[in-house]
């Protein structure tokens, strides 16, 4: 494994120094650089943005803001359902065969589905906003959820248009777009909040204005991606052909199982916040999301799934098992070191990054830090199974883990709530950790069965 990594690193370094991006390997190297840069800018920018608005909004408003975003994420996934992935798969395939007309046909077919799902998601959100706000959460979220419909639409369109550049293997505009988005979000949202928070508006009004500023930032990036796509994506100027019924059926056959996987992943990531929103005050949601923000910034330090997947795909038999064992060892050592660092530094991280108002998040962060010993291994085993062609098994385990997560969250939150709202937050953390442990256990068991066969 180490030898393979050294060979890959040496080859990539030579190409970068010589600016040799010829062939499929060179294209992969160039795209990896752009993708890595986009990911780093996104993570750093998101962390900085989260810190700034958390300090500006303070726990009550920041908790409500986090709750609105988690709610919008559920509606947002219904407007996607794997369509962006389908764009990359089908359009990329036709472009590889130099069939621009057919690529344009797939674009329009998928765009129609995307637009229709986005409109349905927006209508559902607006229709259910009052029920969600007043009957489920019992919090002043109505205005923010209604305005959040604009955020939902622009964010959905951004994902679709961005996938066109991935299909064309042209990732440079996405890197530029990510820089523009992070800067515009900081300027629009930060500047807007600086003015609005001085006007002594109600909590609901402040929250609604915040979502409006976020929606404007997303609208800016959609306008940019649209303008660039008209100039750089040539096949959009081609004539459109009607897709055959068999081709449409193939698209739907691809989307349906992928939709289930996407839905499960989003529910797994947001169900804890959504359930907490019903039972605890917004301040405690802020403490929970603050802890997760710091944890999320730490996870990339120990996660190698993106790097390992292509390497695992090239290995088989004993070499694959040896590679898996070595990657697990390295990940465990890094995870353990990061975990110890967070346990020790948690008070200082929360105090200096988010401020003294968020100090109750310290113990939550310490509890959630156990995820560092679970999530990276889930990624590794998932990469292992996917590279072995066991994607359906991975999907079934994720769906089962999501259902378990929902059940455990409800049980632990309501049970610990009798002791106090902060204990309900600990209950949500425990439910998340246990469901991830069960998911990891399932992946390990499947791996052992495959190993024996």
Q: Would you kindly provide a brief summary of this structure?
A:
The protein is mainly alpha-helical and 453 residues long. The chain has helices at residues 2-18, 23-78, 83-96, 100-137, 142-167, 172-196, 203-232, 245-279, 282-298, 305-313, 317-353, 361-368, 375-387, 391-416, 421-452. It has two domains: 21-243, no CATH class; 277-453, no CATH class.
Produce the secondary structure layout.
Layout: H1 2-18, H2 23-78, H3 83-96, H4 100-137, H5 142-167, H6 172-196, H7 203-232, H8 245-279, H9 282-298, H10 305-313, H11 317-353, H12 361-368, H13 375-387, H14 391-416, H15 421-452
Helix pairs in contact: 2-4, 2-5, 2-6, 2-8, 2-9, 3-4, 3-5, 4-5, 5-7, 6-7, 8-14, 8-15, 9-12, 9-15, 10-13, 11-12, 11-13, 13-15, 14-15
Key structural traits:
15 helices, mainly alpha, 85% helix, 2 domains, 0% strand
Question: What this model shows, in words?
Answer:
With 453 residues, this protein is mainly alpha-helical. The protein folds into 2 domains: 223 residues, no CATH class; 177 residues, no CATH class. Helices cover 85% and strands 0% of the residues. Helix 4 packs antiparallel against helix 5. The longest helix has 56 residues. It starts with a helix and ends with a helix.
Tally of helical runs: 15
Distance between the termini: 22 Å
- SS-based structural class? mainly alpha
Q: What percent of residues adopt helix (DSSP H or I)?
A: over 70%
Strand count, sense and barrel status of the largest sheet are: none
Q: Please compute the radius of gyration using only Cα atoms.
A: 23 Å
Count structural domains. 2
* Helix/strand order: HHHHHHHHHHHHHHH
Total beta strand runs: 0
Globally, the shape reads globular
Q: Which regions have little confidence, pLDDT < 50, spanning 5+ residues? A: 4-9, 20-24, 304-316
